[in-house]
Design goal:
Length: 207
Amino acid sequence: MSARVVVLISGTGSNMAALMEAAKDPAYGAEIVAVGTDREGTRGVEAARAAGVPTFVVPFRSYSDRSAWDRAMSDRIAEHEPDLVVSAGFMRILGPAVVGRHQAVNIHPALLPSFPGAHAVRDALAHGVRITGTTIHFLDEGVDSGPIIDQVAVPVEDGDDESSLHERIKVVERRMLVDTVGRLSREGWSIDGRHVRFGRTDTKENR
Ligand code: GRF
C-alpha cells in the first residue's frame, strides 16, 4: 500500500510538482493525498487543484497567535491521515502542534547546519562559500535543525546571483526530494539521535 503524503507549500511548488509526477507511478510507493498552504492563490496551489489533488489553506493572519495557527495547521493535516508530511518550499516555521503529531521532512536550499533560515541562498553567497547545496531533514522544533536524511552539493559559479544559484540548487533538490520521499515511503526509516537510516528496525524509535 502506498504511503499517504501531505505536501506543504507557500509558492511556486516546483518540488511539489516533481513529487506529484513521480507519484503517478504506483511503484513509487507514495500517494500525494493533499497539498496544504499558508497562502491562497499561489501557482503551486493552483497547480495542485488543476491536478485534482485536495488542497487546504490555513492563512497565518486568520489566527490570533502562532500557536493557534500551528494547532489549526496540525488539525487540517491530520484530516488527511498522512504517513509523512513534506514541507517543500513552505515558508513558515511549523511549531510543536505539527511537529509533535506528524512525521515531517523539510527541504532546505543549503548544506545544513550552514545557513539555516529563510535566506539560505543569499546568505551562502554573501559568505563567499564555493560549495553550497541542498538538505532534506526531519523536522524538529528548531529552525532547520532536525536529523539530516540526505544532502547534495552544488558549486557556486563566478558571477552567480541569488536567482541563478537558487535555480541550479532547485534542479538537484527536486531529484533528491523525489528519491528520498520514495525511499522513506517504500522502506520506512529509523532515527537514532541525529542519524537517520532507511529500513524498518526493531529500535524503540522505529517509525
Ligand atoms: C526550495 O528551494 C526550497 O528548498 C525552499 O524554497 C524553494 C521552494 O521552491 N525552501 P518551489 O516552491 O518548490 O519551486
